Structure formats: C-alpha cells, structure tokens
Amino acid sequence: MALASMSTGLKWQRMAAPILVILILAMMVLPLPPFMLDMLFTFNIALSMIVLLISLYTLKPLEFSVFPTVLLMTTLLRLSLNVASTRIVLLEGHTGTDAAGKVIEAFGHFLVGGNYAVGLVVFLILVLINFTVITKGAGRIAEVSARFTLDAMPGKQMAIDADLNAGLIGEDEARKRRAEIAQEADFYGSMDGASKFIKGDAVAGIIIMVINVIGGLLVGILQHDLDLSTAASNYTLLTIGDGLVAQVPALIISTAAGIVVSRVSSEEDLNQQLLSQMFGKPQVLFMTAGILTLLGIIPGMPHIAFLLMGAGLAGLAYWIGEQAKARAAQPVAIEAPPQAPESEDVGWHDVAPVDRLGLEVGYRLVPLVDRTQDGELLKRIRGIRKKIAQDLGFLVPPVHIRDNLQLKPNVYRVSLKGVVMAENEAITGKFLAINPGRVFGTLQGQNTTDPAYGLPAVWIDAGLRDQAQTYGYTVVDAGTVIATHISKIINEHAP
Q1: With contact defined as beta carbons under 8 Å apart, do 489 and 416 qualify?
Q2: What is the C-alpha to C-alpha distance for residues 148 and 131, in angstroms, rounded to an integer?
Q3: What angle do CA 24, 28, 32 make, to 5 degrees?
Q4: 488 or 141, which is more confident?
Q5: How many other C-beta atoms are found inside a 10 Å radius of the C-beta of residue 380?
Q6: Which residues pair with 412 in a beta bridge?
Q7: Quick check: 166 and 481 in contact, CB under 8 A?
Q8: Helices (H), 330-395
Q9: Which of 2, 78, 92, 465 is deepest in the core (most CB within 10 A)?
Q10: Among 244, 275, 306, which residue terminates a domain?
Q11: Bigger pLDDT: 210 or 372?
C-alpha cells in the first residue's frame, strides 16, 4: 500500500513540470475570467517572493541550480498573463476599470493614485531599472563567472586527482567534486543565457503597453462609442495596472538573479554576511554617526532626520562594541598538556633499528608532523597507507618521522630501509602552483619543479592561490607536496 502511494506520488511529481508548462501556454489561447486572473497574478507575486527569499538564504549558487529554468518559467508565466489580461482589457475595458479583475484595478488606482500619467512614468522607471541596471549587471557577472569557471576547471580537476593520489579522499568524494565543478560551469553558463529572458521580457512589456493603449483607444472610440477622455482613462489605467502587476514580480526575480550570481560561496547566508561584515565594526558606525550629527547641526539642513539617524547609529555602535567586549571577556577553557611518562632505564629497546620507511624534515617543516600542532601531514600519510592497502592488497609499514637539524630548514628526505630515495624542498605557508602543460598566465614566486612528477612549478603566496587556479595551475600546499611524493615512492618500490 505504501509502495503504491509512493509510486503514485512520484508519477505526479514527474508530471508536475509538463502540466505547468502546458497550463502556461494554454493561458495564451484560452480566455480567462477576471477572478482567475486575480488568482494567477497573486500566484505570480507569491512565486517571485519565494524565489527572492530562497536566493537570500542559499550558501552557494549551486544550492539553487534550478534557477535558470525557474527564470524561464516565471518569464513565460508573466507573458502568458499579459496576453490573457490584454484579451480581457480590449474586450471588456469599456465597462470600467475593474473589467480585468481587482488586482489590476488595485495596481492602477492605489499604487499610482488613479493618474495614468503618473502610472506611465512609474512603469517606465521600473522597466528601465530592471532592464539597464539589474539585468545587465547580473548578466555580466554570470558571463565573467562562467568564463573564469571554465578556465579554472583543469586546475581544479588536477587538484582533485592530487588529493586522490595522496589518499586524502576516496573515489566517491573525487567523483562528487568533479561533478560539482562541471555543474558550476553549467550553472553560470545557463545564467548567462537566462538573463536574456529578462531583457526580452522588459522589451515585450513596453511593446505590450503601447499596443494595449492604442488598441484600447481604437476599440473604445470606434466600437463602443466612448469619448476620447473616457476611453483614455479606462484603457490607459487598465494597461498601466496590467504593466505594473507584471513588472513588480519581474523586478523581484531580476533582483534574485543578481543576488544568486553575485554570491561568494561561504558557510553563512546573505543575512549573516551583511550583519557581520557591514555592521560588525563599531568604529565605522561611530564615524558615520558623527558625520550625520555634523550635517544635522548645519543651518538649513533637516535637523531631526540627521540627528535621529546619527543617534541611532551611535547607539547601535555602542551596543555592538559592548557585545564584542562581553564575548572577549568570557573565559576560554585551556586543556592541560598530557604529562609525559616517567623515564625508564636505558635498554636494548632504545637502540633505533633501521626504518623500512623514514621521513626526515627540517625544523621549519616540523609543524606539519607535530601531533600537538595537529600536523596535517600525519593524517595524509595515514590516508596514503590506507589507500595503498586497498589498491595493492598489502599493508605499508609505518613511516618513521623525525626532525633532522642537519637538513636545511625547508628540506625533507624520504628513505627506504636506510637508503635515501628522495630529498627535496617544501615551503610551509606557501602553495606550489604546478603547470600541467596548459596555463593562461605567469605567476610571481620561486620557480621550481614538482618533486613527484618533475613538472615546472612555482612556490606562490597564499594571496595568489585563486589567481593561479584561474590561470589553470594545479595549486597544492606543502603537506600535499610531501604526501604525493611519498605516495609515488611507495608505489614505485612496492615490490
């Protein structure tokens, strides 16, 4: 019984999108009563608000990857409603301003005060804002993001391969990351094209308005014997109301598109980012409050508005500062370091045997292998041993790690049964940008070669990491460099 109901639900879910598209297209052909138009216009406004709120609460653009399709559907819905309302306006507009439903009448009367000249100006301003500001900017951001995402794909994929070879991730995680990279490129490419829907919608809105006004005047004067003033008042107000009730959701959807493509992926939604980054520094708020207060005491300025706003910002800055002090004053629990066991007498166990696998590091690389400093290289070596055990079917002996003051500070040495197999350099705090053979620019840094595969590479500062990935470099940190080198040595000498 449960399986039957579940399969029925899945069938309805699969049929939902085709049914919705067919209904939207049917609205262009079938006549709709005014009440149904009111419900559909209200649904259009509610849908645009849902899309806007979802865009505000997403953490990264790929969480709303269906947005380009939603953009097309909402645009098609608005145009279908325009066609349906145009039919009613031209057929029933001579009966009064409520001929096309209460929603259009409310937008024509309440929002612009029943003045069709004011309504015409407001409509044109909304179209210009939507077309020349929001849509154009969102389209440009999507275009540039798509281009840089495509350029950075080879470097990101090679970084995934490096982590996979080093044993840091498994096959499933690597497959998931590759799919995310491809999906990200597809998303920005789709958004670049989808922004043209909004552009066409704005142009269509202006043309539909002109057609409705001219057609309404001709129908009212020639077919229904209305005088010019009455025909102009009825049909123009209906047309302006129809245009506004369509352009307001269009403006909301365009704003959502701009928010989605301009977001930077993070662990915070837009609300948290705005509060923490714009209102997280009380010094800025205090300075703004001081400037507003100075403007408020200048003769001829609106004193109440400036002084009230300055006092409000000063109070907000004081409250934020007190909250920060309270958080800083909270005691931080410090764990006591583990006590070292008591020293025992010297015995044969103190004689160090020859290591089957050994890693010696200079003093600057010690943080990578220090347990007390959460050395990342220790985890990566464990991942390498686990991966090789799964792939080759035997257990790799533990890697004996120790520091060697005779080595240069950034040098590491890998030995196999006491024989040095490799010795190279890794710089902590920097990243190794490896040239896979096809890059789009040069980087400033220390030129070198990848110790594992001998590819040309550059040690770069952390601030150049994103630029290097954009140029097509494979960017890895010092721990990954050493781990990849160890993994290659173990695989080559596994027999």
Answers
A1: yes
A2: 25
A3: 90
A4: 488
A5: 22
A6: 361, 424
A7: no
A8: 366-369, 376-392
A9: 78
A10: 275
A11: 210
